[in-house]
Amino acid sequence: MLIDIGVNLTGSAFRHDLDEVIARARDAGVGVMVVTGTDEAHSRAALELVGRYPKVLYATAGVHPHHAAEWSDRTLKGLEALAGRPGVVALGECGLDFNRDYSPRDLQEKAFEAQLELAVSARLPVFLHQRDAHDRFVAILSRYRDRLVDAVAHCFTGTADELAACLDMDLHIGITGWICDERRGLHLQRLVNGIPLHRLMLETDAPYLLPRTLDPRPATRRNEPMYLPHICETVARCRGMDAAALAAATTRTAQTFFRLPVQ
């Protein structure tokens, strides 16, 4: 069994065929998926999906930096309520994104720190986002890291130095189909062997980041969790190990990180 630690199932991309998407994932060996909460409304929607697919779906609850301008005391209270609900296994997706700057940077930092504080008090791991903001991300996160139960750098695509900094902070690392991209992912193919096996987890970030090495190529550009085995095989090949062994190891790591029942 594989665990997809990051899927965006609450948006319009899966509105019309979610049952089929989940069935295809399970047929492919992806037994558990963690649905990403990107704002308060989508976090609530993620938890609703958990109710529809118990023991198959779990949820995170958080506010992505793109939505940080929407942050308020009411948002915090809403996330506090969600953090106490069964099925919510992490806080986030939270962090900093200085690439798009959809929200002002000072508001991104404010929302990020508030969610880290909540993760500390709720005793939940955090699901982290960082793009073109490494220095500030590390500066903020390092002030909380000793009090956080766990943290994962979701969809890691950074440099060797950034990977070293994440590992120095005892972060887990989430690898997506970005590693299958011959234009942008070649450096990840070299770096992935440096991630300790007990810190490595796999994700599709569906419907985004469709692996470019799928053969045959899907008719649509929509990514699905059923493609996680392809990512697993790519990572295993880069690490020079058996794909089944990598699948077993990343599953154990995800179960421990998210406090999931062993199936």
Largest sheet: 8 strands, parallel
Which range does the strand content fall in? 15-25%
Oligomerization state? single chain
Quick check: average pLDDT? 97
Structural class: alpha/beta
CATH architecture verdict: Alpha-Beta Barrel
| Topology, number of strands | 8
Based on CA inertia axes, which overall geometry fits?
globular
Low-pLDDT stretches = none
- Please name the CATH topology: TIM Barrel
Any idea what the CATH superfamily is called? Metal-dependent hydrolases
Query: What is the gyration radius calculated from CA atoms?
Result: 17 Å
Secondary-structure element string: EHEHEHEHEHEHEHEHH
Please give the alpha-carbon distance between the first and last residues: 9 Å
Strand arrangement in the largest pleated sheet: 1-2-3-4-5-6-7-8
The structural domain count equals: 1
